[in-house]
TrEMBL record:
It comes from Actinomadura macrotermitis. One of its GO terms (molecular function) is hydrolase activity. Pfam families: Phosphatase. It is an enzyme of class 3 (hydrolase). Its EC number is 3.1.3.-. This is Putative phosphatase. Keywords: Hydrolase. InterPro entries: Phosphatase_SCO2771.
Length: 268
């Protein structure tokens, strides 16, 4: 796909509700901000923050870095993501990916949204591999149990999609959404134990990105307006770039964004 212009991408993001008026409920956003501020690990994505954050401060970060409605009394309805902030961050991500390509860096890629974002990561992985970057795939097959609200414990297994994108799979053979930081923490523990190449860059989301940033790796990734941890991590300097977007739209809608990213990185 030919990369769109900035104006064309902006129109596409708003039309497909990747940014602009998004379908994420405002009440869900505020609930997640409250839980992150309260120290709930599920909403902290593996990050250890330098200080305590209040719910109001988290909202202020999300206004600045994501473009949600600044009105603290807007409690219900839909919320917003500023498409200009999305594109600005996408360009910053492209610049960091370009640096990895120039350095032929070791890179890890991972997603907690395998049903929607995998093609974005695969396109970047393929382009980086073509430029001589090593796509790291440690801890393949590692398993752990998670607690679920409906059936007690379920097994999750770390697998890699074609191209080297890490994600979780269940015993049912399906890939699963996750916020967990444990899989990335295990990947990095294996690399450290083996004395293998250490990632110069992690491209990820959710806890995968948080754990990489917490480990001191340059982490670039995507986050929805109900996932404040990575934005707060960026505010503290622990996460390099966070692209605000709705991470749950149909996968093909991300294709123009992917083309824009690769073009910015000089990998088109």
């Amino acid at each position: 796909m030919t990369a769109p212009s900035r104006a064309e991408l902006r129109e596409h993001l708003v039309r497909t509700m990747i940014a602009g008026e998004v379908a994420t409920p405002r009440q869900n956003n505020l609930l997640h901000y409250r839980r992150m501020a309260a120290g709930n690990p599920y909403y902290q994505f593996g990050l250890e923050f330098k200080r305590a954050w209040t719910e109001r401060e988290v909202l202020e970060v999300m206004v600045e870095r994501c473009g949600v409605d600044p009105d603290p009394y807007h409690l219900y309805g839909d919320d917003t993501i500023d498409p200009e902030l999305t594109i600005d961050a996408l360009e910053a991500m492209g610049d960091r990916i370009a640096l990895a390509a120039e350095r032929r860096s070791p890179v890890v890629l991972a997603t907690g949204h395998p049903a929607t974002l995998t093609p974005v990561y695969q396109a970047v992985a393929a382009a980086l591999a073509e430029r001589g970057c090593r796509i790291l795939t440690p801890a393949a097959g590692w398993e752990y149990e998670i607690e679920t609200s409906h059936s007690g414990l379920e097994l999750r297994r770390l697998v890699y999609a074609p191209g080297g994108v890490a994600m979780l799979e269940g015993d049912d053979g399906r890939t699963h959404h996750t916020h967990d930081s444990a899989p990335m923490e295990q990947m990095l523990a294996v690399l450290a134990a083996e004395g293998a190449d250490w990632p110069d860059l992690a491209m990820a989301d959710h806890g995968w990105a948080g754990a990489a940033g917490q480990a001191g790796i340059d982490a670039v990734g995507f986050a929805d307006c109900n996932d404040p941890a990575l934005f707060v991590g960026a505010a503290e300097g622990k996460v390099a770039v966070v692209v605000p977007l709705d991470d749950g739209v149909s996968p093909h809608h991300y294709a123009p964004m992917t083309a824009y990213l690769l073009n910015r990185a000089g990998l088109a």
